[in-house]
């Protein structure tokens, strides 16, 4: 272990290459509810080509006329468009163009499917027929009613037929990880002998455990020397039923597999497939241990994930590795302090390497002073010590009630606090209200007598608190009545009241502006901000009373 790998350096080492075979458009599309038409498949395939995946499995040509047409469209358009070669950091040589991706289609081990695949793939410059047949006892008995010998013979026939259309043929013994290992060895050896150029070992039901799966991959290489002799690529196709698809794929690579089948956002049958973005970033990030690389231009990952999400309707969970909204977000104070000092303290991937927006400091109840005052500074505010303390206290109060505190919230807090000066006479300490359709609205407030004059007038020490209750026409009226009672100013009347949302969402900060007429008829306006409109009203009311007191101070100071 050591410092996180710089992806751009890792990629320049040119280690052993792993082929990235993307099956978003085939197995990914098998997710319940997803049906992509030809236009959508071409759009995703074009993005996969920008991402520089090596093989795009565009569909299952025999599944429907629509899928046949979609595979054909991908073969025609994406299968003939050279990809601009891009370095891991996004560099792009002008004349440096790579072949179009290989376009693949899946076919059962029957002539009709193989012929349909061949026909739909024909327009692509490079194409692969991927044929499969179940080998496990369970599948053979319940789905195919076929003996091992029959399966082996059918697989060989299918591969040989596929080879008449292309010299790039992949064979998958379906449900390989629940197949008797000696039979798996036999059928893989027969597939290699029959001309398969890639043999894929599918963990069809996500049953494998990493160490065991890795052992099988190593053992296949050991027992079948022709895999190496004929340059046959051993591939893996891992499902995620136990959440192990990425781990199993990596362990397979550590044991000699050189193709990984993946789907963007990990979509696919049931719990999905090995997630493309996770496995390719694991390979780049831990190149120090894996010693392999792939050709992907990873800054396209986020864009690819978003495109697939929007065209499939499958949203990406916030905490999804690499492409989730929170992949580079930090909410807790200790982490934020670290990341503000150096992102390496809590990030192992550079956000720009996956095309994300950068580290995000998200303010919430776990945030601390470093992050809060950085947000204040970014907004251009300068606070003195007292203002800073008050603003931070208000921020924590707000964060307790609101999941995420936005920069607009911070601005509102700071603006509200910076005019609460040391010469404020009253401070609202707490407010409790009750009410409802059948109960009379009532409020209890606690107000601190912060000014020497008001404390003296009330016969109390400076800083003493006064508790008062009142009922009213509504909760705001009751709160204002209780404040009047607490400060002993029954002659103050509420003249106008306006409320506006400062930020969006159901937990938005509300801003209340009130105008009060004081005892001698003069009017003062006050402002209050809170997620709770009654609290914002009470703060606005106290603010207006403080402003009226400031005028008293100023006029007495300047009295001749
Ligand atoms: C693990 C995987 O992801 S495998 C790929 C799964 N993907 C799909 O199935 C999507 C596309 N599939 C389809 O559109 C349809 O299932 C079709 C067009 C392929 C076949 O449809 P139907 O002919 O109506 O058959 P149905 O789907 O009900 O049953 C599957 C048939 O294929 C046979 N079969 C299943 N796998 C294979 C195989 N690898 N090779 C040959 N035959 C197979 C079954 O034995 C069954 O045959 P039967 O009809 O003689 O009993
Ligand atoms: C056809 C094979 C590769 C497959 O999708 C699986 O076994 O899951």
UniProtKB/TrEMBL annotation:
Pathway in which the depicted protein is active: Amino-acid biosynthesis; L-leucine biosynthesis; L-leucine from 3-methyl-2-oxobutanoate: step 1/4
GO biological process terms on file: L-leucine biosynthetic process
EC number: 2.3.3.13
GO cellular component: cytoplasm
One family name in Pfam for this protein: HCS_D2
Regulatory domain as annotated region, ranges: 427-560
Positions of the Pyruvate carboxyltransferase domain: 18-302
InterPro entries, per the entry: 2-IPM_HCS-like, 2-isopropylmalate_synth_dimer, AIPM/Hcit_synth_CS, Aldolase_TIM, LeuA/HCS_post-cat, LeuA_allosteric_dom_sf, LeuA_bact_synth, PYR_CT
Cofactor: Mn(2+)
Record carries keyword Transmembrane: no
Enzyme type, top EC level: transferase
SUPFAM superfamilies xrefs: 2-isopropylmalate synthase LeuA, allosteric (dimerisation) domain, Aldolase
Residues reported to bind Mn(2+): 27, 237, 239, 273
Catalysed reactions listed for this entry: 3-methyl-2-oxobutanoate + acetyl-CoA + H2O = (2S)-2-isopropylmalate + CoA + H(+)
Keywords: Amino-acid biosynthesis, Branched-chain amino acid biosynthesis, Cytoplasm, Leucine biosynthesis, Manganese, Metal-binding, Transferase
GO molecular function, one term: manganese ion binding
NCBIfam families: leuA_bact, PRK00915.1-3
Assembly information from the UniProt record: Homodimer.
The protein's role, per its UniProt record: Catalyzes the condensation of the acetyl group of acetyl-CoA with 3-methyl-2-oxobutanoate (2-ketoisovalerate) to form 3-carboxy-3-hydroxy-4-methylpentanoate (2-isopropylmalate).
Family as reported in the entry's similarity comment: Belongs to the alpha-IPM synthase/homocitrate synthase family. LeuA type 1 subfamily.
Name under which the protein is recorded: 2-isopropylmalate synthase
Native organism: Egicoccus halophilus
């Amino acid at each position: 272990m050591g410092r996180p790998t710089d992806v751009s350096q890792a990629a320049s080492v040119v280690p052993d290459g792993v082929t990235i075979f993307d099956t978003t458009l085939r197995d990914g599309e098998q997710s319940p509810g997803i049906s992509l038409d030809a236009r959508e498949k071409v759009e995703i395939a074009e993005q996969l080509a920008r991402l520089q995946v090596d093989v795009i499995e565009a569909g299952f040509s025999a599944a429907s006329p629509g899928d046949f047409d979609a595979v054909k469209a991908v073969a025609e358009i994406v299968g003939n468009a050279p990809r601009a070669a891009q370095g891991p950091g996004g560099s792009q040589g002008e004349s440096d163009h790579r072949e179009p991706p290989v376009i693949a289609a899946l076919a059962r081990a029957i002539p009709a499917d193989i012929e349909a695949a061949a026909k739909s793939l024909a327009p692509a410059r490079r194409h692969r027929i991927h044929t499969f047949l179940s080998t496990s006892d369970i599948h053979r008995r319940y789905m195919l009613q076929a003996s091992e010998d029959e399966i082996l013979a059918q697989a060989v026939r299918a591969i040989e037929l596929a080879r008449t259309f292309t010299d790039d043929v992949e064979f998958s013994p379906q449900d390989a990880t629940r197949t008797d290992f000696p039979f798996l060895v036999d059928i893989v050896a027969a597939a290699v002998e029959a001309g398969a150029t890639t043999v894929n070992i599918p963990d069809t039901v996500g049953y494998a455990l990493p160490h065991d799966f890795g052992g099988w991959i190593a053992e296949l290489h050991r027992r079948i020397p022709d895999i190496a002799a004929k340059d046959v690529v051993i591939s893996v196709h891992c499902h995620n039923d136990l959440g192990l698809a990425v781990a199993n794929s990596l362990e397979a690579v550590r044991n000699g597999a050189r193709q990984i089948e993946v789907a963007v956002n990990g979509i696919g049958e049931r719990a999905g497939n090995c997630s493309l973005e996770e496995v390719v970033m694991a390979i780049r990030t831990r190149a120090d241990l894996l010693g392999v690389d792939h050709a992907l231009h990873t800054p396209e990952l986020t864009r690819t994930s978003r495109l697939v999400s929007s065209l499939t309707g499958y949203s990406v969970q916030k905490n999804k590795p690499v492409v989730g909204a929170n992949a580079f977000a930090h909410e807790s104070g200790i982490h934020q302090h670290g990341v503000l000092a150096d992102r390496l303290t809590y990030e192992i991937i550079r956000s720009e390497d996956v095309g994300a927006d950068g580290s995000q400091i998200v303010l919430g109840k776990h945030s601390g002073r470093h992050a809060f005052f950085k947000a204040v500074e970014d907004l251009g505010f300068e606070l003195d010590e007292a203002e800073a303390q008050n603003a931070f206290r208000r921020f924590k109060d707000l964060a307790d009630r609101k999941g995420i505190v936005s920069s607009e919230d911070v601005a509102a807090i700071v603006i509200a606090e910076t005019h609460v000066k040391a010469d404020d006479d009253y401070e609202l300490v707490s407010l409790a209200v009750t009410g409802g359709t059948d109960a009379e609205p009532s409020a209890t407030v606690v107000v601190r007598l912060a000014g020497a004059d008001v404390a003296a007038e009330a016969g109390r020490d400076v800083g003493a608190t006064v508790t008062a209750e009142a009922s009213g026409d509504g909760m705001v009226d009751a709160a204002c009545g209780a404040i009047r009672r607490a400060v002993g100013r029954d002659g103050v009347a509420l003249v106008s009241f306006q409320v506006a949302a400062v930020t969006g969402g159901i937990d938005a900060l509300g801003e209340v502006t009130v105008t009060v007429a004081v005892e001698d008829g003069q009017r003062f306006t006050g402002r209050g901000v809170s997620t709770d409109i009654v609290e914002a009203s009470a703060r606005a009311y106290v603010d207006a009373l403080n402003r009226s007191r400031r005028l008293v101070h100023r006029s007495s100071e300047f009295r001749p």
